[in-house]
Design a protein that fits this description.
Helices cover 29% and strands 26% of the residues. With 416 residues, it is an alpha/beta fold.
Amino acid sequence: MAKTAAALVVAAGRGTRLADPGAVPKQYRLLVGRPVLTHTLNALGIHLRITRIVTVIHPEDVRLYEQAASSVDGSWKHKLMDPVFGGDTRQRSVHEGLKALCEVDCDYVLVHDAARPFLATDVIDRLLFQLDAGAEGALAAIQIVDTLKKQAAAGKALETVDRRGLWAAQTPQAFPLQRLAEAHEKAARAGRLDFTDDTGLAEWTGMTISLSDGDAANFKITTAADLKRAEQQAKLFSMSDTASRSRPLSELTDVRTGIGYDVHAFEDGDAVILGGTSVPHTCKLKGHSDADVVLHAITDATLGAIGDGDIGQHFPPSDPQWKGASSDRFQTEALRRLEELGGRIAHIDVTIVCEEPKIGPHRERIRASIAAICSLPVSRVSVKATTSERLGFTGRKEGIAALASVTVRLPFEEGE
């Protein structure tokens, strides 16, 4: 089983180079309608190996943090831990976050700046690959390609700096969780509180750090010009619609469609689960899991689009671990398999067939729930309802059927 990771987001800074007196810190400035921090959390939260996220904040920013956290994508919101108050330096803030993470069950930690919202999943993948291969630490960085000049003082002659072997450090910076926590404890005991990043602190304790390819788009918002650049980049990445992904849909030219169908009978109860939402009714649906007929059809369609079996193969009803399970777990696993292939869902179309309950009053809530589970804008989810004209088991009000069509887009590989 792959080792799990936690993310530690450093958001306790005041952003003095950007903020006017009295202005909100940069990590809470709006970027295409949502706080910068929200985009950063989404970029981390959608990664399937990240199971916990702790954000280190300033004590005066509790309300701002709550607003940012309330608008993250619902499909992964359960990963968010309570925020932790930071210290007067970045090093102290990270130390406080590590103390909180040491209370949870995670193998790795990725320390990331709140003001870097354009983090792609493949950057995280490369860092985790380094740790899986035995690295003591891994740093996302980009190689310097510009000519560098140095001037000792104003008016003095310029000196060209040899750029060979020079890299610009980014975040995340990734480590085995316990190793980094121990390194911070050692630095604190020694009174070394002057480290500006975690790789420097780790190297001071004797750890060897590996370089990992970063991403030029993963820049840190520091100045007003950076914020303007971020607005332009966010629109390009369609961050107003959904969390940032490793590749835009326009680059995924292999378009595939999967079809899913599921049916569940009624039994005594007071509500049915459809698309991850509870719809009041005089019965509930019978099944080994929560019997969410809509999500089951969507999961089968997603798996079908990538040619990866069906829901019964991956989540057999004979397996007791799925008894009563929430069906969003099934679709999350199907999404993980899709993302491993470098793909994304482009559209979901669902038809619910039943006489009762009436779907119309709950349609938009079901759409929003499916969109959140799949990290999609609602505009890419369609939910329709029909009856079977009183024919068959649905016409006799014995159960509900659902049909789903899922369109996915994958990188085009010649010959596949």
